[in-house]
Write a structure and sequence with these properties.
One of its GO terms (molecular function) is glycosyltransferase activity. InterPro entries: Glyco_trans_1. This is Glycosyl transferase family 1 domain-containing protein. Pfam families: Glycos_transf_1 (PF00534). With 415 residues, the protein is of the alpha/beta class. The protein folds into two domains: 182 residues, Glycogen Phosphorylase B (Rossmann fold); 223 residues, Glycogen Phosphorylase B (Rossmann fold, 3-Layer(aba) Sandwich), CATH 3.40.50.2000. It has 14 helices and 15 strands. The protein has a seven-stranded parallel β-sheet with strand order 3-2-1-4-5-6-7. A six-stranded parallel β-sheet has the order 12-10-8-13-14-15, with helices on both faces. It has a two-stranded parallel ribbon with strand order 9-11. β6, α4 and β7 form a beta-alpha-beta unit. α11 crosses α13. The two termini are 17 Å apart.
Length: 415
């Protein structure tokens, strides 16, 4: 089976690019599958791919549409917007006519009005949509990532299904169990065993020896809280691009909320981690006006995000709009409790592994943070619940099986 996945730009550190790369890397491991990724744009700065791609996955470009889409103005821009779907459809069919499956991941570049004889077309909705387009009927399946979007759009089409994202690895299954020192800790149900397992993971990812159990927990072997002369710094983290235009991640309301409780917890710091897309300066000004320089830090995105999870104590999300954010799944897989505003579409990421508060209820958000910040045992229990929850619902074995079933169903259907 030959599978083509389309994407915006492989040099872009976006959620869609990450999902497509993960899918391609897993599909190519299946016997008989040939996999290709087709970016719509080549990066004008010749940047490397944002995420590692298995060498068995081909990368081929249809055409660099960047200049037309981003730079042209006037009549050329109008003609491009009017004709791009047809142009891309025909070019793709000509170049990839022998592919069995095409998985479209861009929101609005391809609508396969014209299909090749044996090809089935799938569209993944990486973003929350607010209007159903009739052109979606040209796809054999529309894949949503969460239950709420599925239920909202099912009345519009019988081709709507749900398949979630998945993390590339489950650290407490794929890594810790391979470390000899961890065998005596299984199954991590004891609080201290869980803490030690996180230390082993930290050693694995940082390639350094973890300093001491005290760095990760203030609980002794007997479960009683200790005090030390040098108190550790606890950390909340939020991850996402700092976007000035869209402000999807809602970092201003996160900073505003945390400023209300920060001074009550002098040993805690909030770190917002992500690339600056025009908003960082405004966020820094906001932090300074609130006199929060010692409590809130802005940090650039790092490829070593695993170490960040393991150095942290709570994951927070203040987004206004998300589909199924990988960061929530990943944070849970590393044993972090979650706190987020309930924007409906992220409910699939929550069970007993965190706290959802009513959207825009700042007081409830602060109360949720405070309750976890002052209760380490509760944080650890939620973290343990999160590890099991992600394994059962979002493991790559579970998710890839859903994709294989979809491919098999499509092969049995007539065009």
């Amino acid at each position: 089976m030959k599978i083509l996945l389309t994407i915006h730009n492989l040099s872009y550190k976006g959620g869609g690019e990450r999902v497509v790369t993960n899918l391609a890397n897993e599909f190519c491991k299946i016997r008989g599958y040939e996999v290709c990724i087709m970016p719509y744009y080549t990066d004008e700065h010749n940047l490397p791919f944002a995420y590692d791609i298995d060498p068995r996955v081909k990368v081929e470009y249809l055409h660099n549409f960047y200049d037309i889409h981003e730079k042209e103005r006037g009549i050329k821009r109008i003609l491009w917007r009017w004709s791009r779907h047809l142009l891309i459809n025909l070019r793709l069919n000509k170049k990839f006519k022998d592919y069995d499956i095409v998985i479209e991941s861009h929101l609005s570049m391809l609508y396969p009005r014209f299909k090749t004889k044996h090809t089935k077309y799938i569209k993944i909705m990486h973003m929350v949509i607010h209007k159903w387009k009739q052109k979606n009927k040209y796809y054999n399946r529309i894949v949503f990532l969460n239950q709420q979007e599925l239920e909202r759009w099912q009345p519009y089409s019988d081709r709507v299904i749900k398949i979630p994202n998945f993390p590339t690895q489950l650290p407490f299954d794929d890594i810790v169990k391979k470390i000899p020192e961890s065998s005596a800790l299984l199954p991590y149900e004891n609080t201290n065993d869980f803490i030690k397992a996180r230390i082993l993971l930290a050693q694995y990812f940082t390639k350094k020896k973890a300093e001491d159990l005290e760095k990760y927990s203030s609980f002794s072997e007997s479960g009683k809280q200790k005090t030390t002369e040098t108190q550790r710094i606890y950390k909340l983290i939020a991850i996402g691009r700092m976007e000035a235009k869209a402000n999807h991640k809602g970092f201003p309301r996160l900073i505003q909320a945390y400023s209300k409780i920060a001074k009550d917890f002098p040993q805690w710091r909030l770190e917002i981690i992500g690339d600056d897309c025009g908003q960082k300066g405004m966020l820094q000004d906001m932090i300074e006006k609130l006199c929060m320089q010692n409590f809130i830090m802005l940090k650039p995105f790092t490829p070593h995000i695993e170490s960040i999870y393991l150095e942290s104590d709570i994951f927070v999300m203040s987004s206004h709009s998300e589909s199924l954010p990988m960061v929530l799944i990943e944070a849970s897989s590393f044993g972090l409790p979650l706190v987020a505003y309930d924007i409906v579409t992220i409910r699939d990421c929550f069970d007993k592994n965190g706290i959802l508060v009513p959207n825009n209820d700042e007081e409830a958000f602060c109360n949720a943070l405070s309750s976890l910040m002052q209760n380490e045992r509760k944080r650890i229990e939620m973290g343990q619940q999160g590890i099991n929850f992600v394994k059962q619902k979002f493991s790559k074995e579970v998710v890839i099986r859903q994709w294989i079933n979809l491919f098999q169903d499509l092969q049995q259907e007539k065009q």
